[in-house]
Every structure is written in structure tokens, then in C-alpha cells.
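Explain the record.
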Amino acid sequence: MSAGRAVLLVTGATAGILAIVFVLVGPRQADHIATLVSALVAVAGLGVAVAAAVPAIPGRRSVRVTDTGAATAKGSGSAVSGAAVSITNGTETIDVSHSGTADASDDGEATSGIRQF
């Protein structure tokens, strides 16, 4: 089950349960319960909005590389087909898929995938 369907299922079930509770407790208590539920949902919604608006932790980042071409190093050169990432930069996630071929001749150095330095 996808996350979207799970959210719809939980939302629908919650609305159904609240409707049954409102019918069982009567209009006066239902009004009070609805007010409390509305306040809780508003605070939760505000929290989600703020979490979405706040940028990621400074110094942390994700790197995603897909479908890179071939890399060839000759002589004492260096080549990377994929990603070359500094270990000290605080990269949180590195994802490389379908990187190209890497070929090194003579004293060259070639990497297909991830090279950390």
C-alpha cells in the first residue's frame, strides 16, 4: 500500500469514527469535541508546514547521480564516471546508479561509481 493510500485510509477512518462519536454524544458535546479536534489538527498542520519550510541541516546534503557516461584516464590522469565527493563536506547520502564505464591506461586512475577523497 502506498503512503498516499494509507493517509487516505486513516483520514477516512478517523472521519467515520468522529461522525459516529458526534452522533452518540449529542450536539452539545459534539461541538466541544469538534473544537478540540480542530485545534489539535491545526497545531499538527502548522508543525508539518514549518518542517517543510525549514531548510535541511546546514552542511548536510544529498548527492544523486544517474546515467553517467564513460570516463577515461590516460597517463597520470584521473577520471570519474559517477560522483567524486569530499568526505569532509558532510554529505549525508550518496546515490549513484547506472554509472558509465571507467578506463585507465598507463598510470591513470579511473572510478566508476563513487570516489571519496
Remarks:
- The two ends are 40 Å apart (CA to CA).
- The chain has two domains: 3-53, 61-116.
- The chain has a mean pLDDT of 84.
